[in-house]
């Protein structure tokens, strides 16, 4: 894993609707980070490190697949010159396939993900990378096709873990975190439709991110 020369000052969260969290598309600082895990992490670190003047960006876009993420990478990632990029993507790639949509027939998840990591390492070799594991639970949208959902997401989880190893990124496991949370409450309490987190689910993600990243060479301090 690449070691950063200093603590990240500019942190970017990237992904789909789970990251998006209903964020505004303007400069309204009351809404620009959304209301999900990216907001929770940013608010906690921003408070704890107020004297360090950290900058947090959220550029997640609802509905994005890995290929969509790659298509806007120059504008929504590289141009911001972040010191740390955290990525959570994969559920929409799987969802398109589960729904049999034409755009889901060619699975470009791993290929597109690799492209954006390669490009990031080429243009910003010192930028820290955090790759978050995609996750699901058996409730809502995933129930009727649970075996294929499990199979596809498991493939993505393995690919993300491998990419994290290959590109010197910090890997944040999340599936086991949600599985263990089922001991406290049922699946819909954490992921209301099997995919999208509730408020408690976002807090679970935020705590896991902080636990892993803040105990790594990429810690925001």
Automatic annotation (TrEMBL):
Residues 15-204 form the SGNH hydrolase-type esterase domain. It comes from the Bacteria. Signal peptide: none annotated. Pfam families: Lipase_GDSL_2. InterPro entries: Ester_Hydrolysis_Enzymes (IPR051532), SGNH_hydro (IPR013830), SGNH_hydro_sf (IPR036514). This is Lipase.
């Amino acid at each position: 894993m690449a070691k950063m020369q200093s603590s990240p000052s500019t942190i970017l969260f990237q992904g789909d609707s789970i990251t998006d969290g209903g964020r505004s598309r303007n400069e309204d600082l009351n809404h620009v980070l959304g209301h999900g895990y990216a907001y929770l992490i940013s608010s906690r670190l921003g408070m704890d490190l107020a004297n360090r003047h950290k900058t947090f960006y959220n550029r997640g876009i609802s509905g994005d697949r890995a290929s969509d993420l790659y298509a806007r990478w120059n504008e929504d990632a590289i141009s911001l010159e972040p010191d740390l990029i955290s990525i959570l993507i994969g559920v929409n790639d799987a969802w398109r396939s589960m729904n049999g949509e034409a755009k889901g027939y060619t699975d470009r998840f791993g290929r597109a993900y690799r492209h954006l990591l390669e490009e990031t390492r080429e243009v910003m070799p010192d930028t820290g990378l955090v790759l978050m594991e995609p996750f699901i639970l058996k409730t809502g949208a995933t129930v009727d096709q649970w075996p294929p959902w499990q199979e596809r997401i498991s493939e993505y989880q393995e690919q993300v873990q491998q990419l994290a190893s290959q590109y010197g990124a910090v890997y944040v496991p999340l599936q086991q975190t949600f599985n263990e949370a089922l001991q406290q409450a049922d699946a819909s309490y954490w992921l209301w439709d099997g995919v999208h987190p509730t408020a408690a689910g976002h807090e679970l993600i935020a705590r896991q991110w902080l636990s892993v990243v803040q105990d790594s060479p990429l810690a925001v301090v």
